[in-house]
Amino acid sequence: MPPFTYKIQYAENFSDEFFQKGTIDKDKGLEEFQLFPWGKEIDEYVRSSNDPTIPKIIFNSDDNIQLIIEAVNNKDFSMEYSNFSSQKYSDFYISNDFEKKNLAPE
Question: Residue 60's domain spans which residues?
Answer without folding.
Answer: 4-102
